[in-house]
Amino acid sequence: MEPAAAKLIGAGIACIALAGAGVGIGTIFGNYLAGALRNPAAAPAQFPNLLLGFALAEATGLFGLVVALILLFVI
Amino acid sequence: MSAAEAVHGAAAAVHGAAPSGGLAIDPMHQFHISTIYPLHIGGFDVSFTNSAMWMVIVAAAISLLTIAGMGKRSLVPGRWQSVAELSYEFVSNMLRDNVGDAGKRFFPFVFTLFMFVLFCNMGGMLPYSFTVTSHIIVTFGLAMFIFLGVTVLGFAVHGLHFFHFFVPKGVPAALLPLLVVIEVISYLTRPISLSVRLFANMMAGHTMLKVFAGFVIAMGWAGGFLPLAFMVAFTGLEILVAFLQAYVFAILTCIYLNDALHMH
Known about the structure:
The complex is a heterodimer.
Chain A: H1 3-14, H2 17-38, H3 47-73
Helix pairs in contact in A: 1-3, 2-3
Chain B: H1 2-17, E1 35-37, E2 40-41, E3 44-45, E4 48-49, H2 50-69, H3 79-98, H4 107-123, H5 136-158, H6 176-188, H7 190-223, H8 225-262
Antiparallel strand pairs in B: 1-4, 2-3
Helix pairs in contact in B: 2-3, 2-4, 3-4, 3-8, 4-8, 5-7, 5-8, 7-8
């Protein structure tokens, strides 16, 4: 296989990491909504934790994106 | 390289076919650092770049907001004073919730950090601006400073007792050798995860906006309105992300400070 082709395929594969980020963000917001509907009074206090969890989950997917960009532009 | 060149050629062909005159858009061009005032000291290139210029603009904007905003100190705050007080209270509450009273003396540090990252992110949303935080060296510099500072603080407060931080409590002794190694590695990767999170969010968001902008031009007058509508929505999302990442950066700094001050 040509190195350039392998590079492009590798960058594409690295973007699968975004699927995990999608699952993580969905889990966080889904569980927050479920909890907030059961106990709306406690929901606002947990909003900062929601944002924190969202950002942490999103970041793991973006690490995959960084790997893809390194493959494309650095190596 | 032939495959990559073919891809670029195809992209150029698509753009060339666009009715607006073949404007090939490079989504990475917005991250290009250009020298404004060349300066070399002792073999180091310390030129004044567009990145440095935007950092100066950000610092000036924050100073203007906080100093001019609090200039009058009226009992009923005006608009500028409200914004300055809101940002003060926001960081103050964050610090109190996450670190407690011991965190009071780190307020200037966390406030400066939060405002700097927030204004860099928000300034990047202005058209034709430069996003300082979309370069990993900037975010890594900030994160490494936080990491080293927090580690030094931990040793200053607890002495050698700080090494207990890496030994989780209530674990069977047989598992300890493994867990301590994992704890140490997870501690050492903190500056990397902290910096890559901010940098990747900023860079990915701005690249995505630029790619969609390319679609608007490539699809022309008739079809360009659909990606334009997406662009408007994504810009709103990016402003949210710009704030959120500054918030997460500051709150993780608070959590690290809390770890150093109170250990477990």
